[in-house]
Amino acid sequence: GRMCGSGDTEKKHVKVRTVADASSEWGKLAAVQAEKLRPTLAKRIKSFLSLGNVLMILGWLCVVLVILYINMLSGEIGHFDPFEIMGISPGATQQEIKKAYRTLSLKYHPDKNPDPAAHSYFAETITKAYQALTDEASRENMEKYGHPDGPQAYSVGIALPSFMFENGSLAPLVLGLTIGIGILLPLGAAVCYLMSSSKYTGENVMHQTIMIFEGCLKPAMSLHRIPEVLCCAGEYVTLPIPRQQEEGLWNLKTILKKHHPEMDPKGVKADGKFFKRHPGVVKAHMLLLAQASREGQNISEPLKQ
Known about the structure:
Layout: H1 2-5, H2 7-23, H3 25-37, H4 41-48, H5 51-77, H6 82-86, H7 94-108, H8 116-134, H9 136-145, H10 171-197, H11 207-216, H12 225-230, H13 234-238, H14 246-256, H15 279-292, H16 301-304
């Protein structure tokens, strides 16, 4: 209730504080860091082209190529249609069927065409189509069910290229690689991506950080408790600590002992918990205490970066 009732005053204070911070050394460093973290097109592309995403794209590309290859094979197999082969309509009479057969015989019969391919086409396709249309039962089945042998059983299967099974000993290996690369790998990459992306909100803030701040930051909490809560953000745990920062952290630790006795392991107020936390959290806490203690000028250059 009190926080909502002082809306204008809060805005003025925030504005003055922002200007003051922007003119200080800490404010300048924060502005530089914010500019570095600003999402750009290049950063978005680099983030998208992670190893997991690239593997997922390659996996789905393999799936698409296999599907296209199977469709190509299916198109080559084709469907046996005697009406189309004979070049007549489904309602053609027997006289029209015989006329079409004679016309095709003049073109493909072995006595008229010595080409072996023409001989094979005539014997295996034209003759079969003619027999299917001249036999009453076969033609009736063709017109009713689309096949001269009557209704066909419906079956579902997975079509795979024949070269995968030409060598019997390699068939299980090839099939396993196809399933692993084409299905399991993209699925695993997608699961990993969703699990990692679910850690952050739309503004790239970790859900863990929001939960900590909402649970620990209180309107009436003491000032010395605020840095302890702010440094517990989950983002600090993910940040590495390069070797060139270790010396600066050690010197900063020595300087902060005089302001914060609890940081001295041998001090009277020491409880031993300060340095038992994650190194990233300890680093963030020390930097916050250095600014609050007016020791910002003693922060080394590697730490400022």
